[in-house]
Structures are given as C-alpha cells and as structure tokens.
Amino acid sequence: MEKSTRCRIANTDLAILAGDITEQDTDAIVNAANSRLRGGGGVDGAIHRAAGPIIERQCRVYIREHGSLPPGRAMWTDCGNLKAKYVIHTVGPIYRNDEESEPILRSAYQESLRLADDLGARSISFPAISAGVYGYPLDKAARVALTAITDYLREGDTSLVLVQMVCFTDSSYTAFHRALKGCEAVMGDE
Length: 190
What we know:
This protein has a single domain, classed as Leucine Aminopeptidase, subunit E, domain 1 (3-Layer(aba) Sandwich). The protein has 5 helices and 8 strands. Helices cover 38% and strands 22% of the residues. The longest helix is centred in the middle third of the chain and has 21 residues, at 98-118. α3 packs across α4 (138-154) and α4 (138-154) packs across α5. The protein is α/β, with parallel strands linked by helices.
C-alpha cells in the first residue's frame, strides 16, 4: 500500500506520498532541473528518460532562445511518454545557507504553481526540489516547500484541486510528513 498523508488548504488537497514522480497521473509534474535544462541525474534524469526525446528538444529550443533558466524560475514542456499533460521545469538553489537559499527555493515552488494555474492544470506533483545533489537539508527543504505551497494556496483563486509532494525515499517521506503536521486538517495517514 502506498503511504500518503493529506490535508486541505482552502479548496485544494495537499498530499504527501511515497512514490515515483514519473508514474503520477496529475495534469502537471515538476522537474527539479538544472539551469541548462539538460537531463542530469536524480529526478531530472528520470523524467527525461521516461518522457522521451520531446522534452530534450523543447528544452534545447528554450535554452537557445533564453540562454538558461535561472534558479527560482519555471518553464514548461510537453509530457512526451508520461501520464501528465505538462512537465514544469524549475531550478532550485544549490544550498549555501538559509538566508540565501530559502527565497530561491520558495520561488521555485510558487513559480511552478503559478505556471500550473496559467496552464489551467487541476493537479500537480512535485519532487523534493534541491534536496538531492543540490544539498538542501531535507527537513529544511520540506518546511520551505510546504510553507511556500500553503501560502500560495491560501492566496486563493487557483485552478488546482490537488497538489502532491511525491517522495522517492523513506527519509524524504518522513521529512515531508513531519513538516505537514503543522497543517490543521490532516485527513489521513496510511
């Protein structure tokens, strides 16, 4: 059985679940990309491999036109072979310290949510942005992520009815589950 925890923020369900982001059947999935949008390791490489060549082609066009995708910003491509309709690419910070890195990580989540709204998405799945090779401490990354998401959802007027944090490892699930405990209306823990 898949582990999951949910709470309700305004009119949106916020879920933490253990799983593989490339398998999610949400309107959008978020890719924790690098600034050059080249499928590297971790989530980025997994999404590029699962989606097929269309993402790489569309990322190359974006880079040719814009040079790079700055940390904290987001762009989208088609989904290729994935179940999602869109892949939203965002670049998180390489962790240095809280003061420098937190605003960039917060922006990466909120820019992705704004873009999902612009696309009319009703559901979105996030990985733990910057918590892998970019070195953001997992507990801090989880707190920043959930605060950024809940602040965005509380602003209202969103098309999103479901926001998922998809945790690939047990340690990631545990960190996000702990961070979610601050949510008032936890709906279930399996």
